[in-house]
Design brief:
It contains eight helices and 14 strands. It is globular, with a radius of gyration of 23 Å. Strands 5-4-3-6-7-1-2-8 form an eight-stranded mixed sheet. Strands 9-12-11-10 form a four-stranded antiparallel sheet, with no helix packed on it. It has a two-stranded antiparallel sheet with strand order 13-14. The chain has helices at about 55-65, 80-105, 105-110, 135-150, 255-270, 270-285, 300-315, 415-430; strands at about 110-120, 125-130, 160, 170, 190, 210-215, 220-230, 235-240, 325, 340-345, 365-370, 375-380, 405, 415. It is α+β, with helices and mostly antiparallel strands.
Length: about 425
């Protein structure tokens, strides 16, 4: 067939554009998604998103560049890769629904202890966290994992992947700059992480998920259920950890993410002078380290990490707008005139921040912060109470659909009057 696919017979489960050469489509997408058996990547020993173990990542990137213009409009709305992933997604949703009916709400809500370990990292980087199975993956990432690890909230995009089948859970609308890497990462479909509780996926001791933070750098963490607690309280607790936070954006690391962090820490022994210089540079350039005093990546300060989690619990959920860094050069009069360290400008619903890809939604405001390099950082934050499905107790972190709202600020929620009384002294400071 001139200019088109040699044959679509092997892809009867897909709707392929007549001008799309199916020969360039990876063989995994030619398999029936309903019968495909997900296998771990032999090089990483990890599941690929949706179990799509593509043979050549770069060839698929080139294919997308060549074929993307063929899809997006009726009757070819989705690319073949997205159609395949969507079918896998529907299978996962059906399996999850069946499990929820079989397991029941009480089993899903069990408290569990989860180990968080950076993939293939030596020395070992870890966090051990107690958390409720009723917490959504969205809240777990935003208010527990990110502050426990020491990254910056509402900065980068992320996803969770079930190591049984590669099912992906992530934000459905993200303004983070690294979301441009979404399809390079084969994230052709995903389940809304605000709609899924971690207890619906973490079902047995030993169940494992991959947590990827920053789709550009690709920080990889393995989350594993260590045990289910005899008593269910719903309260969050950071139990232990090893190594302090790595630098955002892999600043000053020899290469990106896990590998770069491992090589950087090795410099402490092999090249102390270079290690010291790189450490200083990391602190100056990394958004998550700039305010750290006496930062030592080899020493984990559990109380500091607990404080970050407490601050996250007492605040609104991230809007997923991402943080955008804008340089003054070339912007002229459009660059905000920020005389102090930061300014807060509220925008009404639908008003467009000239430096953000999305209009500011109702109940949000924009914060612009001047940085030491002369640029500024802009993001949108939530000004109203969190939606019930992702809300957590501002004191203990318990998720509950019947959380009580603070009558003073009408924004934060509590699971009990005891938690509200415990938290009042800290919360009152924000009201004054």
């Amino acid at each position: 067939m001139k200019g088109g696919a040699p044959s679509n017979e092997r892809c009867t489960h897909l709707k392929i554009h007549p001008q799309d050469n199916v020969a360039t489509l990876d063989s995994v997408y030619k398999k029936d998604p309903k019968t495909h058996i997900a296998r771990r990547n032999p090089e990483t020993d990890l599941q690929e998103p949706w179990g799509a173990d593509v043979t050549n990542d770069m060839s698929q990137v080139l294919r997308q560049l060549q074929a993307q213009h063929l899809y997006g409009t009726y009757p070819y709305e989705l690319s073949p890769e997205a159609q395949w992933a969507e079918q896998r997604k529907e299978m996962k949703l059906a399996e999850m629904e069946a499990y929820k009916k079989q397991a029941g709400a009480e089993r899903i809500a069990r408290d569990m202890i989860i180990s968080v370990e950076m993939w293939r990292m030596k020395p070992k980087f870890s966090r051990t966290i107690r958390v409720s199975g009723n917490m959504t993956f969205s809240a777990f990432s935003d208010k527990i994992l990110v502050p426990a690890i020491g990254f910056t909230r509402n900065y980068h995009c992320y996803y969770f992947s079930d190591e049984r089948d590669g099912a992906v859970f992530m934000p459905q609308k993200s303004g983070a700059i690294d979301v441009t890497h979404k399809f390079i990462c084969s994230l052709h479909a995903s389940i809304d992480d605000t709609k899924v509780k971690i207890g619906e996926i973490f079902r047995e001791v030993g169940d494992t998920m991959l947590y990827v933070y920053d789709l550009g750098d690709h920080w990889r963490m393995l989350l594993t259920v260590q045990q289910f607690c005899a008593e269910t309280t719903g309260k969050v607790e950071l139990i232990a950890g090893e190594l302090d936070s790595p630098p955002e954006d892999s600043n000053s690391l020899p290469t990106a993410a896990n590998r770069g962090w491992k090589e950087f820490l090795a410099l402490k022994t092999t090249s102390p002078a270079r290690y010291k210089a790189s450490l200083m540079e990391s602190q100056q350039q990394s958004w998550n380290l700039k305010d750290r005093k006496n930062y030592d990546p080899m020493v984990f300060d559990i109380e500091d990490a607990r404080k970050r989690i407490a601050e996250a619990l007492a605040s609104s959920a991230s809007t997923q707008s991402g943080k955008l860094f804008v340089h003054e050069t070339g912007l002229g009069s459009k660059f905000p005139k920020i005389s102090s360290d930061s300014r807060h400008e509220e925008l009404g619903k639908g008003e467009l921040d000239p430096f953000s890809p999305f209009p500011t939604a109702e109940g949000e405001k924009r914060i612009d912060t001047r940085t030491s390099s002369g640029s500024f950082m802009t993001e949108s934050i939530r000004t109203e109470k969190d939606p019930k499905e992702i809300a957590l107790c501002a004191c203990c972190g318990k998720p509950d659909k019947d959380l009580l709202r603070c009558s003073a600020c009408k924004k934060v929620r509590y699971c009990s009057r005891e938690c509200q009384k415990t938290h009042w002294k800290q919360h009152k400071k924000k009201l004054c």
